[in-house]
Amino acid sequence: MKTRKKLLSEGTKIEDKLIERAVIAGLSADCMDKNERSTEQSLDELEALLETAGGATFGRVLQFRSAPDSRSFIGAGKVRELKELIDANCCTLAVFDNELSPSQTRVLGEDLGVQVIDRSALILDIFAQRAQTREGRLQVELAQYKYLLPRLTGMWTHLERQGGTGSPIGIRGPGETQLETDRRHIRRKISKLEEELEEVRRVRSTQRRRREKNGVPVVAFVGYTNAGKSTLLNCLTDAGIHANDRLFDTLDTTTRRLRIDASTEVLISDTVGFIRKLPHHLVEAFKATLEELCYADLLVHVIDASNPEWETQAEVVGRIIRQLGAENTPCLEVFNKSDIYTDQRIPAGDNIVQVSALTGEGTDRLIEKISQLLDSGRKRVILRLPYTLAGMLDSLHRDAEVLNVEYLEEFIEVVVVVKPEIYGRVKKYIQKQ
Q1: Which CATH number fits domain 4-126: 3.40.50.620, 3.40.50.12160, 3.40.50.11060, 1.20.210.10?
Q2: Which phi and psi (to 5°) does residue 6 adopt?
Q3: Is the pLDDT of residue 290 over 90?
Q4: What pTM was computed for the model?
Q5: b/e string for 60-90 if b means 16 or more Cβ within 10 A?
Q6: CATH level 2 (architecture), domain 379-431
């Protein structure tokens, strides 16, 4: 049998991957908002998050109290119980489902003798692993610095162990480097990151104006993490996105074109998945990306109908949409995984579609519904303009969606999608198709 020292030095291997052994804990207090309380279901989700980050759960504790303990959060008795689980299973990490104050994190670390992190730190760690684009890395880095700034005291002995992807869960640092101990330097770093992300917003604003000028509608996929948004985007557009059955598999936004009928082509954006207790700093940092929801012509809310918690998950997504100010954007609810769900409570309605992104079942109806909701009288027409009206091309490029221009001997043939207000101006030049 391996000794505790040997296990601590080697970690645990599952399927040839080195993992970190951990225990998880949560608190349900009467004074807490219901969305902040821990439940067996939220601990199940925390366990899945831990697995996503590269760890494994070897024990759990769920405490019920009237209020959090100011010193140790879960109380001295539960701390002893957690310590026994840690010692019995040679664990090196304790993860809490609720947000801990800096002093509680420090006290628990001293009492338990292992690294202690909360759900927010775990989610930030996963994002640090998954961010691929420069924009994604900037956003995660900003969120990490803001999270860590009030937690600097007493953390530096842990942070000295940072060293990239091999670092323990919860302390993979921004930019894969050790955090500077100078608070002023960190604040300067935060300011610099905010300036860079503001530039990202300006670029997005320019791109948005260009889309509006060309009349290309934008459809944004939103939903709980692992609801199947990327799989659905692949099904509709052959996007080729890696879509795995794990939490936060997609972090960086992907946009693809989809022709939904003879006259309309749309841009579909796959956004980062939401989750309960999503760290506030992360939402704030990702606003440069998530604010696109406010400018989308249509939200497609993808719901995992096979998950018994789908109603709770849908509420979480709705709450974050309101937080981002996108509650007035038209929304189509898509109940995904119809090939495996058994829940009979799936509602029916005009703006509800059931699909299987895996098999393609129901996607024709989905495309038809998207077309209906986006339809505002736009028409695809072929114009034959005399050369004396060549200047009209400029206004068409500005106010309509020009698909093709061909300069023929006697006239200019233009294939264009026009809105009703433009249709009247060009009606006399339309050729019957």
Answers
A1: 3.40.50.11060
A2: -65, -45
A3: no
A4: 0.73
A5: bbbbebeebbeebbbeeebbebbbebbeebb
A6: 2-Layer Sandwich (3.30)
